[in-house]
Design goal:
Layout (H helix, E strand, L loop, with lengths): L3 E7 L5 H12 L4 E3 L8 E8 L6 H4 L4 E9 L1 E3 L8 E3 L8 H8 L4 E5 L8 E2 L2 E2 H6 L9 E14 L2 E8 L5 H12 L3 E11 L2 E2 L4 E5 L2 E3 L2 H4 E3 H4 L5 E3 L2 H8 L4 E2 L4 E3 L8 E5 L5 E13 L7 E13 L4
Parallel strand pairs: 1-14, 3-12, 17-20
Antiparallel strand pairs: 1-3, 1-16, 2-3, 4-11, 4-12, 5-6, 7-10, 8-9, 10-11, 12-13, 14-15, 17-19, 18-22, 20-21, 21-22
């Protein structure tokens, strides 16, 4: 069994869970999960964890995201997208590009954002969409998110093309809705495509050819466990310390080969063996003095690497 991640270009229609079920059927593997939900309306990059790759979810789900989006101005949607009930809200034909640019400036940088009522965020153990479908009013607390870029690409009334680079947890639907309110004419997402998640790009993803399989080059879309963390600093573990690390032992960082920037306290690092296989994700700590640390013990002040998640590719 192979362990790693698979990059999928999700079409419009299926849920993220539907794609997981398809992958389980096609690959004949049950241990598959997705890392970052895409709404049924949305297309684009969905990362699947395969086998031990499912353990990477905590380290990949919070990566920045990039989207291309079409916003339809002049109406509001109950779901903030084309899947909801649409009602006219204003005359988009009177809106000029300068107004849009000025309003968009309010949504760049660090902002407080209320998630859509139709979302999977949970309150009192229930997803918000469950309250919304039952017609139950629920108050949602705003969340602090970061909008690194919000580019206005084209304005062809009533459609507005946008490109956004945002932090994890940012709802593009909410940005579009709030932009429409700021312009006084309403707006909702009519098309949404996720093009990038951290270092992973949709151009490398495999398409869903039909209900039976994936199209394109699956090898191009595949990443090993270690490759999935290529954007991390790696620490190479010599053969003599591989077994202790696999068993969860803390190791002394002194003398270990570090690929990338120097180690820093309380940062996470990818520990790999001589064959470039991922052994563990480890946190760098400062030792208080511990002779039992693998690699010859640790003196007070030494940097040590404590595994927080181990991986086995056998």
């Amino acid at each position: 069994m192979r362990h790693g991640i698979l990059l999928i270009d999700k079409p419009q229609g299926p849920t993220s869970h539907d794609v997981v079920e398809m992958a389980r059927h096609v690959l004949g593997i049950r241990q598959i999960g997705h890392m970052g939900t895409l709404d049924p309306l949305a297309t684009g990059l969905l990362i699947l964890g395969i086998g031990e790759g499912t353990k990477l979810a905590p380290f990949l789900s919070d990566l920045d995201k990039t989207y291309s989006c079409t916003a339809r101005l002049g109406a509001r949607s109950t779901t903030y997208d084309a899947m909801g009930t649409i009602e006219p809200a204003g005359d988009a034909g009177n809106v000029v590009l300068e107004q849009i640019e000025a309003a968009a400036g309010r949504f760049r940088g660090t902002i407080e954002q209320k998630p859509p009522v139709f979302s999977a965020i949970k309150k009192a153990g229930r997803p918000l969409y469950d309250y919304a479908r039952r017609g139950e009013a629920v108050e949602t607390a705003p969340r602090r998110v970061r909008v690194y870029t919000l580019d206005v690409l084209e304005w062809t009334p009533p459609d507005l093309s946008l490109r956004l680079h945002v932090s994890s947890g940012t709802y593009v639907r909410s940005i579009v809705h709030d932009l429409g309110e700021a312009l006084g004419v309403g707006a909702y997402v009519s098309q949404l495509r996720r093009t990038q998640v951290g270092p992973f790009h949709v151009s490398d993803a495999a398409a869903i050819a039909d209900a039976q399989g994936f199209g394109g080059n699956l090898e191009k879309a595949w990443r090993t466990l270690a490759q999935a963390l290529d954007h991390w600093t790696r620490v190479r573990i010599p053969d003599r310390l591989v077994a202790p690390v696999k068993n969860g032992a803390t190791v002394n960082a002194a003398g270990l080969e570090v690929e990338g920037e120097a180690l820093h306290h309380d940062h996470l690092y990818a520990l790999v063996d001589e064959q470039e296989r991922l052994l563990a994700v480890a946190r760098c700590l400062v030792s208080r003095g511990d002779p039992s640390v693998a690699g010859g013990g640790a003196q007070r002040g030494d940097l040590i690497l404590k595994p927080v998640r181990g991986f086995r590719e056998e």
